């Protein structure tokens, strides 16, 4: 490594200081939503949300950058939960063509209904270890019978039931005229007015009325009056705010032991856990968190929530690797094994069970290496040949490796199509598709014949091979790149969309940050060892590859960088970090390496703090694209991070603005964000968090590590941030020894999931 070569200031000798400052730990930007600074404090404002006086933590649950913190002391996310609430108004039908985000939401709804029908058709009892027994089993059966309309997410999208699936035609090139990003139908005006009156009586901002009405339905006013704690269903509202609202409405009838409060807090804690990556919580952790929220009888609160069908309970056997099989008792029954009791929200429980069933179907299906499958390996060499042989004989194959290893699934895709197989590859971002490249037999990556697409595009029906009469993807082979970013819901929809006999390859780098949504699908599958695992031996080249590979195994090595591929810029405090970051992006990197500012990404641990995205983006805008912010703080030419749906962030650029909304260019496609959605869906995007940047790479990256970010660092975060650079990496370094310590000692925080347990009941472990 070397010191920064192009600078106008002397950084001074010695070790940079590590002054204390605001906590900038970045829990995952769980929904990929833009900055809605005032949302968490909405109830404290008289009319509209206002920015808090102190920098906020961008934390999903306790400020854990890996999303693994226990929710016991969790606060509602700053802007992450704001999007969760926003999804309530994102549905509906428009008068024109449906946008990508709207089509994606509709496709997700259709897939969930298909999953529910599939589960209902199963007559056999659930395997032992996945369901409670006795009276609890009866309760769980009753819970599963609750109509999906009782769930807040389902009540939002008041669209007619989808027509029966028909075979989809081949996708055509998307129209290039701008289309609305979201066409919300919105709740009825009468319902909004009713809610507004209730909010006013409780001292809450009336601006929340549309969100509440969308979440609670036509009778939202009466429902909120009867149960004020339903306000917790709105993203960004915290328990203490809901308590104050309830006291204003109920007076003496309001108390911490209210059954309605216990149920609402239970659901809220489970939602916070999901935003931190957990698909369920162990019962002791949940009751402890309820006790910290002053719930007098946490067990009763959980039981009430289960009885109302707002959560599900599970009993999973604890199986340690290498443990002996259970012994037979004298009466012929097996000895009891230790179990853990889990509680989770229905949507994640259903998705995880459906995913396990679909994966088991793929693993247990006979893999016949005949015909084109037999010839598949003959068309490739090296690591791709090993991958092809595994795919020829198995329905599910895992492939691991770094950036250079993407060449192997790309070669497999080309060989499969050359052999006459219907093969397709999906990535999580358009940039991921670009980096995959187009193999022989493909064509332009934007053409209808392209063999590559995005996960969101395939699920929405806007990309991909189309579907057959049964609704399955018309494919023999599906390759999913960047598999660690798959959450349980998207993974379940993809797997359920594969027909019997199709092959699935999940490929990715296991060292990067996990998914923004709930679950850790790729890591769970690697740990379950239920299918072949092919580890690439293709290393990432150059000094950057050497640096990132070392971080992946817990070593922060000093690498030789004769071309200044890696530069360390020491700083003393957060103010200097912001100054040097702007200098690097605007002057030093373009002059020394020929990379223009629009091709350089700035990555920082969090949104808050003196060197978070909220501080860096205005400073970068002032230098790179100054302007008055004529449309909601944006000007033509501004770089933005656009969130078309929760959990997704797409880099873009502002083109113009008019009465229709803010016109963007995202991944080469025009997008129009309606005026009323700009604040929730768009933020400035010169500086991103690592979770927002995980799906892409840029020619140059500037990673900002101010002193107050030390607690947010972990090995996966550093690995992900450093790995976003293709040619040059500058590290604005103000954390001293916290960086090597985080790389060596701080691994990914665990997430509570059930996928491994569910798979063990259906799939024998591979050798």
Key features of this structure:
single chain; 6-stranded parallel beta sheet; 27 helices; disordered N terminus
Describe how the helices and strands are arranged.
Elements: E1 2-3, H1 80-86, H2 100-120, H3 135-144, H4 152-156, H5 189-201, H6 209-216, H7 220-226, H8 239-250, H9 259-275, E2 281-282, H10 283-292, H11 298-307, E3 312-317, E4 339-344, H12 346-364, H13 372-376, H14 383-393, E5 396-400, H15 407-418, E6 423-427, H16 430-436, E7 452-454, H17 455-460, E8 477-480, H18 488-496, E9 503-508, H19 521-528, E10 533-535, H20 542-552, E11 566-570, H21 574-593, E12 600-603, H22 613-624, E13 639-642, E14 650-658, E15 661-666, E16 669-673, H23 678-681, E17 682-684, E18 687-688, H24 690-693, E19 698-705, H25 715-722, E20 725-733, H26 738-745, H27 755-760
Parallel strand pairs: 1-11, 5-9, 5-10, 6-7, 6-8, 8-9, 11-20, 12-18, 12-19, 19-20
Antiparallel strand pairs: 2-4, 3-4, 13-14, 13-17, 14-15, 15-16
Task: Offer a concise description of the structure.
With about 775 residues, the protein is of the alpha/beta class.
Average pLDDT, all residues: 79
Task: Give the amount of beta strand, in percent.
Answer: 5-15%
Helical segment tally? 27
Strands in their spatial order, largest beta sheet: 1-11-20-19-12-18
Structural class: alpha/beta
Using only C-alpha atoms, the radius of gyration works out to: 26 Å
Shape: globular
- Beginning-to-end CA distance, first to last residue: 42 Å
Helix content: 25-40%
Count the strands? 20
Major sheet details: 6 strands, parallel
Low-confidence stretches: 2-97, 123-184, 439-447
């Amino acid at each position: 490594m070397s010191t920064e070569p192009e600078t106008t200031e002397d950084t001074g000798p010695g070790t940079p200081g590590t002054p204390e400052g605001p906590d900038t730990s970045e829990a995952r930007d769980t929904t990929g939503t833009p900055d809605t600074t005032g949302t968490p404090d909405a109830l404290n404002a008289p009319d509209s949300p206002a920015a808090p006086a102190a920098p906020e933590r961008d934390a999903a649950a306790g400020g854990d950058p890996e999303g693994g913190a226990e929710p016991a002391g969790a606060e509602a996310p700053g802007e992450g939960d704001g999007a969760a609430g926003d999804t309530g108004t994102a549905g509906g039908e428009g008068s024109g063509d449906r946008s990508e985000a709207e089509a994606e939401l509709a496709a997700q709804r259709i897939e969930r209904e298909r999953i529910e029908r599939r589960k209902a058709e199963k007559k056999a009892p659930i395997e032992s270890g996945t369901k409670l027994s006795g009276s609890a089993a009866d309760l769980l059966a009753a819970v599963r019978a609750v109509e999906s309309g009782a769930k807040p997410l389902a009540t939002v999208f008041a669209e007619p039931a989808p027509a029966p699936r028909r075979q989809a035609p081949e996708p055509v090139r998307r129209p290039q005229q701008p289309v609305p990003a979201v066409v919300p139908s919105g709740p009825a005006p009468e319902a909004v007015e009713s809610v507004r009156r209730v909010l006013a009586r409780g001292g809450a901002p009336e601006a929340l009325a549309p969100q509440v009405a969308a979440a609670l339905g036509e009778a939202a006013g009466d429902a909120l009056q009867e149960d004020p704690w339903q306000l917790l269903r709105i993203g960004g509202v915290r328990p203490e705010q809901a308590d104050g609202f309830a006291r204003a409405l109920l007076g003496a009838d309001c108390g911490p032991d209210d059954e309605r409060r216990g149920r609402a807090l239970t659901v809220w804690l489970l939602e916070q856990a999901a935003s931190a990556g957990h698909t369920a919580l162990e019962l002791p952790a949940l009751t402890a968190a309820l006790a910290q929220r002053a719930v007098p009888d946490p067990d009763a609160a959980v039981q009430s929530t289960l009885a109302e069908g707002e959560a599900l309970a599970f009993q999973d056997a604890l199986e340690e690797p290498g443990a002996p099989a259970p012994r037979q008792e004298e009466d012929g029954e097996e000895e009891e094994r230790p179990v853990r009791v889990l509680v989770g929200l229905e949507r994640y429980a259903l998705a995880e069970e459906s995913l396990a069933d679909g994966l088991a179907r793929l693993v247990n299906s006979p893999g016949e290496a005949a015909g084109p499958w037999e010839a598949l390996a003959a068309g490739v060499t090296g690591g791709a040949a090993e991958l092809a042989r595994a795919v020829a004989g198995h329905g599910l194959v895992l492939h691991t490796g770094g950036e250079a290893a993407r060449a192997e699934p790309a070669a497999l895709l080309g060989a499969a199509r050359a052999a006459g197989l219907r093969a397709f590859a999906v990535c999580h971002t358009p940039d991921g598709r670009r980096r995959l490249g187009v193999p022989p037999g493909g064509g332009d990556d934007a053409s209808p014949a392209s063999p590559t697409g995005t996960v969101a595009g395939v699920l929405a029906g806007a990309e991909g091979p189309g579907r057959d009469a049964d609704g399955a993807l018309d494919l023999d082979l599906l390759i999913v790149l960047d598999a660690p970013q798959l959450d349980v819901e998207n993974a379940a929809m993809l797997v359920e969309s594969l027909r019997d006999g199709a092959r699935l390859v999940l490929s990715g780098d296991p060292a990067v940050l996990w998914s923004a949504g709930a679950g850790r699908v790729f890591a769970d599958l690697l740990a379950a060892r239920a299918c072949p695992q092919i580890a690439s031996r293709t290393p990432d080249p150059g000094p950057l590859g050497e640096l990132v590979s070392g971080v992946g195994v817990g070593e922060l090595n000093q690498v030789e960088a004769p071309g200044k591929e890696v530069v360390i810029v020491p700083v003393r405090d957060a103010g200097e970090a912001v100054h040097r970051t702007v200098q690097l992006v605007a002057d030093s990197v373009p002059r020394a390496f020929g990379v223009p500012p629009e091709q350089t990404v700035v990555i920082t641990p969090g949104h808050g703090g003196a060197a978070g995205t909220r501080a860096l983006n205005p400073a970068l805008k002032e230098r790179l694209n100054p302007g008055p912010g004529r449309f909601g703080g944006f000007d033509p030419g501004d770089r933005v991070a656009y969130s078309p749906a929760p959990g997704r962030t797409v880099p873009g650029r502002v083109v113009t603005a008019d009465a229709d909304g803010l016109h963007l260019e995202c991944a080469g496609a025009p997008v129009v964000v309606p005026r009323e959605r700009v604040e929730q869906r768009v933020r400035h995007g010169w500086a991103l968090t690592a979770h927002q940047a995980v799906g892409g790479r840029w020619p140059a990256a500037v990673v900002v590590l101010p002193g107050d970010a030390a607690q947010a660092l972990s090995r996966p975060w550093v690995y992900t941030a450093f790995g976003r650079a293709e040619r040059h990496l500058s590290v604005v370094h103000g954390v001293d020894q916290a960086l090597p310590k985080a790389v060596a000692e701080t691994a990914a925080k665990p997430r509570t999931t059930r996928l491994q347990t569910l798979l063990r009941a259906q799939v024998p472990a591979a050798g």
